[in-house]
User: Fold this.
Amino acid sequence: MNGGDTLRRMRPVFVFALIGLIFMFAAPYVLQLFTIINLTTAIALAVLALSLALVWGFGGILCFGQVAFFGLGAYAYTIAAINFDGSTWAILVAIITASGFAALLGYFVFFGRVSDVYLGVITLTVTLIFFSLIRRTSGPEYKIGDALLGGFNGVTSPPLNLPWDTGSFLFPEQVFYVAMAALILCYVFCGWLVTTHFGRVCVCIRENELRAELLGYDSRLYKLGIFTISAGIAAIGGALFCNGVGRITPDVFNLYNAALTIIWVIVGGRGTLIGPIAATFGLFYLTSALGGQSVFNNNLVLGIILIFFVLLVPKGVAPTLTDWFTRRRKPRRATRRHRSGRRTEVTKA
Amino acid sequence: MSSKRERREVIVETRNLSMHFGGVRAVDQVDFNLYDKELRCLIGPNGAGKSTFFKCLTGQLTPSAGDVVIRGQDTTGAEPHEVAGLGVGIKTQVPNVFDGLSVDENIWLSARRWHGAKRARALTGETIERLKLGDIRRELVGRLAHGQRQWVELGMVVSAEPWLILLDEPAAGMTHEETARTADLIKEINTDAALIVVEHDMQFIRMISQQVTLFHEGRILMEDTMEAISSDKRAREVYLGHRA
Assistant:
């Protein structure tokens, strides 16, 4: 594929990235500090949703334990930042830890030809093992370097600092900028990845694994690749998350969070990247708003939303909107481009 | 004729190949040779073992006993992608295509496996032209008719430029006209590649056949031209008899 083709395919990605950039620079002038701090957490969760959108929506791998890599990233960041007295390398440690663990787990799962359903079960189980394991680390004997793991109370995460000066911590607005920039970069990276040869092969494995193998692609390697990459992205989300919240606790690994990640992607739409990001922001604000009242139970509302989407909007918000727009634009296009038959082209934003 | 074949290289060889499912001997000690640039049809009644034999060649099944050798390489128990990696194009019985992707993308994915970005693009265009898929190249394959999907799969096989092609029922579900076009395409491909074609459709086999291998109860019953097989008494009994 030549460069022009890549740019054409990535046009929607750049449009959304630009909207993100405008929002990034405008938000601190418009919104209050409290909202900005809250937003940083939502952004971190959006990075997590993006990572699942990549591995599930494009790789076809239903990873029920994407929060495992997110939490692992958060813990690795925190522990490394405490020990290194600085956050810059800690982010790298977070990415490497989560990706490394995913590569190891993925090796056994994919090369052992574990079927899709069991993959979901295994990843969820691994997440819950982390949950129980880290909850039991409350004694002073559980420490890595200078960092106490703190059991169910968790660990206080050192905030991000300037790369060249470990003494100057970032202010909440600056952390917001970093988080937003990270989200946009991860989004553009994923948007680019799915237009590459690697990304397109991952999509074709999702469509028909046997055919991909009969063409000569080793599906196990591609699956392992996209699984590892998505774990690294989840870890970036984790590092941002513990910055936004200020600490990391084992609750990140619980069943509620594991399920919530799946809900974001279902609501936003599998096969798109922007959909799950948007759904994360939407549902995050909905749960915050519901937290302020006591008439409806929070989980009940989330459950109803999930059932509503699975039954009535099974493709999710973004694909449904895309279909709707293409259908509306179709008559005009058809007359203009008469016989070129471009109407079925799928746009992947 | 046989003396002419002796001089040609054997490119697919099975020795004592057996595949058992529990007590069922689907393929039973089959010795089979395919020569370079040959076009061979495998026929036989349902359950004769030809599809199982085919799957042992493509790596979809690991044989219970015996060896498969493709151009000097032992591929017994190899993964399908490893067999394909030798330059073997494979089309399965049920169309295996990427339903959610366009015709263009389906063929590109095959061409790109073996070629750089530029060559793959060109090859995709050539294949689409050759198979006359131009009108539907941007359609999703899942929305196409069965015969068209078969053609897309053939296009994927052809665009990889393999030297050996294995086709399992390429004409299944095609209209008369499509079957004739497929036969022409197979003859055209045969000028640079060897083929093994598993088929049910007698008319189709008559269109393309040179040498035919008849399977019966997991074994090779006979190997000859279609004319010889149609006039053979045993062959008529096991296979043609119930049709005639």
